[in-house]
């Protein structure tokens, strides 16, 4: 596939590493002089900027964690005076104060550049129309994708999230070739088109850029088939820059996304010890910004679980690739002493054709015992095949084929994930749906 910046995206590894080393040295000296948090952190380790000779020394630097950003709220991590900040974004702040991030004009140029690279990798071309259904506002998704699409030369429809009726109308009337949204919302749109009798062949969309929440190959398949697109994964987080840290190439779609390593240096470390892990081994993704000036970040502990490889990809790009996120360390559920990630359960469901990957995990506790209920939609074709229009508890209890399906799902999850749970079958469309934002698949009602 054509690239936005082929001279950078295919830079030989020795030259890329030399560029990373130069930029890391400059970044460490920059934050030491400008950010009190980093001066203290380096002093506590007995480090001076001159101790960092190259990218091979990055492990000497301290980690930065989300708590550090909250402790310095709102502007304590900024490396430039507030008057030089061109834009401010922030996380949702659902667990207290939000994490605040700032951008200089130069940072916004970098933001647009890496998103343009990502959209080009995803199939975007100058002159195409992007239906941007990421939320605008403090969330980095909407404005981030917008700026990158304009840099690439695309026409942007800034529809934002929600208002599904309007989304359907605009897609049918404007006929965009590409859509950007969360994977769960892409599923919602696919279902709405189906309800209206609009086949995938009648939808103008050809490419979907999906991110902001973990997703699986089962979801990719349902989106591709439902919207008639080729979907790719875009990865990012506001603390680093926003969307555009990495993206899959649409010609590959192997679940590996290219990280734009000239701007963001990736590591994978052990979740318990913080020690670097070899390529191919799953651990916590750690990212260092090499070029950001408003709010540079050293070794940011993302909490996202993945692995990386530096083997060149089929597209000819030389930058490292990261696997799709397996889950987050803070999304991990501990159920009767077993560590469980929702994506593990989703991967099991992918192998069961009688159900679809629309579900909710509900956790409760009676006394000291955790109880897990998996509320799971059945596939419409299966429901028809067993001769039912709709499900109820009485119908499930009376039909051995339905009760056997519950047992089958529970057994496969027990065998693959290691937890016992109760399966409740739902009618098609009954599980929670995304209305444009991130979908919450877990309801933890335990009082721990």
UniProtKB/TrEMBL annotation:
<dbReference type="GO" id="GO:0010124">
    <property type="term" value="P:phenylacetate catabolic process"/>
</dbReference>
<dbReference type="InterPro" id="IPR045851">
    <property type="entry name" value="AMP-bd_C_sf"/>
</dbReference>
<dbReference type="InterPro" id="IPR000873">
    <property type="entry name" value="AMP-dep_synth/lig_dom"/>
</dbReference>
<dbReference type="InterPro" id="IPR028154">
    <property type="entry name" value="AMP-dep_Lig_C"/>
</dbReference>
<feature type="domain" description="AMP-dependent synthetase/ligase">
    <location>
        <begin position="79"/>
        <end position="287"/>
    </location>
</feature>
<dbReference type="Pfam" id="PF14535">
    <property type="entry name" value="AMP-binding_C_2"/>
</dbReference>
<protein>
    <recommendedName>
        <fullName>Phenylacetate-coenzyme A ligase</fullName>
        <ecNumber>6.2.1.30</ecNumber>
    </recommendedName>
</protein>
<dbReference type="Pfam" id="PF00501">
    <property type="entry name" value="AMP-binding"/>
</dbReference>
<dbReference type="InterPro" id="IPR042099">
    <property type="entry name" value="ANL_N_sf"/>
</dbReference>
<comment type="function">
    <text>Catalyzes the activation of phenylacetic acid (PA) to phenylacetyl-CoA (PA-CoA).</text>
</comment>
<keyword id="KW-0547">Nucleotide-binding</keyword>
<dbReference type="GO" id="GO:0047475">
    <property type="term" value="F:phenylacetate-CoA ligase activity"/>
</dbReference>
<keyword id="KW-0436">Ligase</keyword>
<feature type="domain" description="AMP-dependent ligase C-terminal">
    <location>
        <begin position="337"/>
        <end position="446"/>
    </location>
</feature>
<dbReference type="GO" id="GO:0000166">
    <property type="term" value="F:nucleotide binding"/>
</dbReference>
<comment type="subunit">
    <text>Monomer.</text>
</comment>
<dbReference type="InterPro" id="IPR011880">
    <property type="entry name" value="PA_CoA_ligase"/>
</dbReference>
<comment type="similarity">
    <text>Belongs to the phenylacetyl-CoA ligase family.</text>
</comment>
<comment type="pathway">
    <text>Aromatic compound metabolism; phenylacetate degradation.</text>
</comment>
């Amino acid at each position: 596939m054509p690239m936005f910046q082929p001279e950078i995206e295919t830079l030989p590894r020795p030259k890329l590493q030399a560029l990373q080393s130069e930029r890391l040295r400059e970044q460490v000296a920059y934050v030491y002089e400008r950010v009190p948090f980093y001066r203290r952190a380096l002093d506590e380790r007995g480090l001076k900027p001159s101790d960092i000779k190259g990218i091979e020394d990055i492990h000497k630097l301290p980690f930065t964690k989300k708590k550090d950003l909250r402790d310095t709220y709102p502007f304590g991590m900024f490396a430039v005076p507030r008057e030089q900040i061109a834009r401010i974004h922030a996380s949702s702040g659902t667990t207290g104060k939000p994490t605040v991030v700032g951008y200089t004009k130069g940072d916004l140029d970098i933001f647009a550049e890496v998103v343009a690279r990502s959209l080009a990798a995803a199939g975007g071309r100058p002159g195409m129309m992007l239906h941007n259904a990421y939320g605008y506002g403090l969330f980095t998704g909407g404005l981030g994708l917008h700026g990158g699409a304009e840099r690439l030369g695309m026409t942007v429809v800034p529809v934002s999230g929600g208002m599904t009726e309007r989304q359907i109308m605009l897609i049918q009337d404007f006929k965009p070739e590409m859509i950007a949204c969360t994977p769960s919302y892409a599923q919602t749109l696919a279902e709405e088109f189906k309800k209206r009798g609009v086949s995938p062949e009648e939808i103008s969309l050809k490419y979907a850029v999906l991110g902001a929440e973990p997703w699986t190959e089962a979801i990719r398949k349902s989106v591709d088939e439902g919207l008639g697109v080729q979907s790719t994964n875009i990865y990012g987080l506001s603390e680093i820059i926003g969307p555009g840290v990495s993206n899959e190439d649409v010609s590959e779609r192997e679940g590996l996304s290219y990280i734009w390593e000239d701007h963001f240096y990736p590591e994978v470390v052990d979740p318990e010890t913080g020690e670097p892990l070899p390529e191919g081994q799953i651990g916590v993704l750690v990212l260092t910004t090499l070029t950001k000036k408003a709010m540079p970040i050293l070794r940011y502990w993302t909490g996202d679980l993945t692995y990386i490889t530096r083997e060149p990809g089929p597209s000819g790009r030389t930058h490292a690739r990261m696997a799709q996120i397996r889950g987050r360390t803070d999304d991990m559920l501990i159920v009767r002493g077993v560590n469980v990630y929702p994506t593990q359960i989703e991967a099991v469901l992918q192998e069961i054709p009688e159900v679809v990957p629309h579900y909710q995990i509900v956790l409760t506790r009676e006394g000291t015992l955790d109880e897990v209920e998996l509320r799971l939609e059945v596939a419409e074709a299966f429901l028809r095949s067993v001769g039912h229009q709709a499900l109820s508890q009485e119908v499930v209890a009376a039909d051995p084929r339905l009760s056997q399906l519950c047992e089958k799902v529970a057994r496969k999850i027990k065998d693959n994930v290691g937890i016992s749970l109760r399966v409740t079958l739902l009618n098609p469309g009954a599980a929670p749906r995304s209305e444009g934002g991130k979908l919450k698949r877990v309801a933890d009602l335990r009082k721990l």
